[in-house]
Structures are given as structure tokens and as C-alpha cells.
Protein: Homoserine O-acetyltransferase
Amino acid sequence: MITFAVDIKILVKKMPLNLPDKLPAIELLKEENIFVIDNSRASQQDIRPLKIVILNLMPIKITTETDLIRLLSNTPLQLEVLFMKLKSHTSKNTPIEHMMTFYEDFENMKNEKYDGMIITGAPVEQMDYQDVTYWDEITEIFDWARTHVTSTLYICWAAQAGLYHYYGVPKYPLDKKMFGVFNHTPENLLNPIFRGFDDVFYVPHSRHTEIRREDILKVPELEILSESDEAGVYLVMGRNGREFFVTGHSEYSPLTLDEEYKRDLAKGLDIQIPCNYYRDNNPDNEPLVRWRGHANLLFANWLNYFVYQETPFNIDDIK
Structure:
């Protein structure tokens, strides 16, 4: 249990997220009245921040940074957010100046320990794992996280890859893309990750592959926490909360599925309208956003119950 001798009123008032100076997400989120601070201001606060590292594998990195920071900001905890990149892969869709300014190679971070880690999805899900050019490096990071991070959140492809690497859980191709917003149910509302959840909640999905319930049930170390009748397994927990595998995209902004749909149409791909997303299922209409409440609770509960309350005060004691 980690405790800080700090007046909770001060924490709630400030709701600080400690981010690298001049990160584009800072100005974008200030426009949404989300309070973030840069390193300069954070250094004046006498609180040990939780160190959260994000391995961002998504092609449009600035968008993903902003989506994740938006959700991480919904807590009175002070967080120091850092960004990790792979040495074996060069991003083609993000300016090299941005990567050099805000991201560090895993090689330069692997001697540090972190309270929490988020590993995003990646546009490689239709490839065999061993055919992914950075498979060796990312599996090294997976193994490193087990001894250097209190709790890790694996999203979409990273969730599938982590389940395969650690537990041998296979993925399967889908006949058509799982694309849209689907309702889900919690398996055990007493699990702290569901604190404040309703009996039914919504999550966006955007993937060509799936993992299956029967394979996960063969692994006693894993617990299925949430499923969807349409989208299948959504949330799986390992090692009593030190690992969470999330197959959907609760972090998506309201327009992300719209942008993906129009991008694929422009490429001439055979893409269906995202299910349960546009009002009246008409792509000429605005999206109906039904997942923000769940998304904020998911990240806040993860940070509170599985990072903040489990990490040692001395970060070097993480094992």
C-alpha cells in the first residue's frame, strides 16, 4: 500500500498530470478544460508522482497520446507520464522531431521501474506474431514489465500479443472486421476495476481478429472480467491485477471510428458502417457517444486500485 501525507483537498483541486514540456496534447486538452501541468510546474509540488510509461505502437501517435492522457487526467493522483518507443521500428506517420523530443528507446529506460504501464494496439494484427518485425523487442519489453512495473494495461493487439506470449492464447481471424460500439457486461461487479460501473456498458471495437473464451478458460492464471454477446471477450485479468488485457478501444475519442470508416472508404476497402455508432445508423449523422463514462471509470479504477494502492512507496521495491 502506498500512502502520501498530503491533504486530499489539494490533490482534488490540482488534479495534476505531469507531462513533458510542450507536448502537443497539453494544449489540446486545455481546450477541453482538462487540467494538466508540464514538468516545470510539477517540480514545485512536493508529492511523489506515480510514474506511468506508455509504449505507443499506434501509427498516429499524437492522437493516441491525447486520447490516453485525457483518460489518465480523470484522477486526483499526480502522474508523471513518459513515452517509450521501439528501437527496431521507425514510425512513418509521426514527425521524427516529435519522436526525438518526447520518446525514449526501451534500451534507455529498461533500468528504471514504473508504477504503471500502457501498451497500445498496433496495425499488425493480421500478421503472424513472429512475422512482426519488432516481435523480439516487444516480447523483451513484455517480460521486462513483469518485474519493473506494478500493473500493465495491454490494449487491442497488445492484449492479444501479451496473452499469446505469456499464456499461449491464440488469436483467430474474423470473417469481417469487428467494427463499432457494443454493449458489455461485467462478470464480477465486486472486482474493484468495476467500481461505479453499470450492469451494461459500451465499448468501441476496431479489429480483424479475436481471442476466444474457451482458450482463456484453459489457463487457470487468467480471469475473464467482461464479455460482449457481439464482440466477445473484452477484459481479462492476470496475476491478480498486475496485468489487464483489453480487446477494445475505450480510449477512443468520439470521432475515431468515423475517421477510420472514412479512411477505409477512401482507400476503396470493403468496410461496413460501424455498428451502433452513428445516430440512426446513418453515417451522415453525428456519432452517439456512449462509452465515455465507462472509459473514465476503467482508467481511474485501474490507477487507483491496481497501481496507486498496490505500488510500493519506494519505486525501486517493485518486483
